[in-house]
Amino acid sequence: MKIANRLNSIPMSGIRKMFDLASPDSINLGLGEPDLSPPAAAIEGMCEASRKGLNKYGPTAGIMPLRDAVAKHYSRYAPIEGKNVMITPSGSSALLEVTQAMIDPGDEVLVPSPGFVIYGPHAVLAGGKDVYYKLTDGDFQPDIDDIQSKITKKTTMLVINNPCNPTGGTLTEESFKALCDIASDNDITIMADEVYDSFVYEGKHVSFLSQLDKAVVVGGFSKMMAVTGWRMGFVVSDEKVMDDLIKMQYHVCASPNMPAMYGILNALPTIDSYLEEARKIFKRRRDLIVKRINEIDGMHIDVPKGAFYAFPSYAYDIRSADFAMALVKAGLICSPGSAFGPYGENHLRFSYAADETKINKGMDILSETAKRISRK
Ligand SMILES: Cc1ncc(COP(=O)(O)O)c(C=O)c1O
């Protein structure tokens, strides 16, 4: 059977490959998946909805009370309303739907690297071209000069991820302003992926929700509520664009998961205290992993301010895929920097959404493996 060329032209994720090679008792710092329990209210709300018979199709854009609750939760950044929000079957599908709705064949899409693995492939699947821009070393801000040098007449979209996977970087006010100017000056739409907005440990989250004239914002509940398996996300846009996004979603899934929407709705109004606790836990783990990495000769990381990833650089003569493979063989799963686009090499990504015992064991393996590699 024939497979479409546009699918043939994109690779399988370099993150998933590592899992296939790992043994069951490996330390897993490869997954971007919180190990916390979801809020009890979310589980109760979902079960209750299902028991009450809410198991049928729902409205394409999601149930209105949840759209309103999302708008209320995010009104801390901008005065958005429920009509600006569409609930989606995951942040991933929100990203795909936005690209399918907004990119034409031949359009160029500026994609961050190191960056989340699906932006480039989504641009290609929509018939566009993925053009990678660099993040700066150390604090991983979008490199404004590099972005400007890559803008052409065909550039229609700029993807921003804040806080960032895999770097843990958070956008400064200065970067934010520069990116807004670039979008306005060149009539480019920003697709802002803010699924880690709840996980900022220092400073404030800078959100593109205040810029809906030029930005479409994708968010998610997977990380916020530790419900990666529920597949629940959302997109926020200007009302003018929303009808088109809803049309797109109708053709993708008709409507999102009904019981899960009621679960999220039951937990969202009181989520702040849950998130405060989650941030305390992740911040402790972050401090531990940063300290352990910086104790290793030849490895370095600046303290990441957001998400739950450490993305250290190393000074050994080995490709990140081979380094990650050596770690998998020694019992530690992580992701090679090369999985995150052309500017990810010479780094490894470790998720610290795992407990401190696992982080310590993982860092013992990293330290021994790094020593071995540096002697070669
Ligand atoms: C930056 C980023 N965006 C979006 C997603 C998608 O999350 P989900 O599809 O679980 O909502 C992820 C998942 O790892 C991510 O890291």
Q: Could you give the topology of this structure?
A:
Layout: H1 5-8, H2 14-21, E1 27-28, H3 40-51, H4 64-73, E2 85-88, H5 91-102, E3 108-113, H6 119-125, E4 129-134, H7 144-150, E5 155-161, H8 173-186, E6 189-193, E7 215-220, E8 233-236, H9 239-253, H10 258-267, H11 271-294, E9 299-300, E10 309-310, E11 313-314, H12 320-330, E12 332-333, E13 335-336, E14 348-351, H13 356-375
Parallel strand pairs: 1-12, 3-4, 3-5, 5-6, 6-7
Antiparallel strand pairs: 2-8, 7-8, 9-11, 10-14, 13-14
Helix pairs in contact: 3-10, 5-6, 5-9, 11-13, 12-13
The chain binds pyridoxal-5'-phosphate.
Q: What features would you highlight for this structure?
A:
376 residues, alpha/beta, Aspartate Aminotransferase, domain 1, Aspartate Aminotransferase, domain 2, 2 domains, binds pyridoxal-5'-phosphate
Describe this structure in words.
By secondary structure, the protein is α/β, with parallel strands linked by helices. The protein has two domains: 137 residues, Alpha-Beta Complex (Aspartate Aminotransferase, domain 1); 232 residues, Aspartate Aminotransferase, domain 2 (3-Layer(aba) Sandwich). The chain contains 13 helices and 14 strands. α11 runs parallel beside α13. The mean pLDDT is 96. Bound molecules: pyridoxal-5'-phosphate. Pyridoxal-5'-phosphate binds next to α5.
Q: State the end-to-end distance.
A: 47 Å
What would you report as the Rg, rounded to the nearest angstrom?
Answer: 20 Å
- Count up the helices: 13
What is the CATH superfamily of the largest domain? Type I PLP-dependent aspartate aminotransferase-like (Major domain)
Q: How many strands?
A: 14
Tell me the quaternary state: single chain
Main sheet record = 7 strands, mixed
Present as ligands are:
pyridoxal-5'-phosphate
Strand order of the largest sheet: 2-8-7-6-5-3-4
**Shape assignment:** globular
H/E order of the elements? HHEHHEHEHEHEHEEEHHHEEEHEEEH
Strand residue percentage: 5-15%
By CATH reckoning, the class of the largest domain would read Alpha Beta
Helix content: 40-55%
Q: Predict the CATH topology of the largest domain.
A: Aspartate Aminotransferase, domain 2
Mean pLDDT: 96
Counted up, domains total 2
CATH-level-2 architecture of the largest domain? 3-Layer(aba) Sandwich
Low-confidence stretches: none
**Which structural class do you get from the secondary structure elements?**
alpha/beta
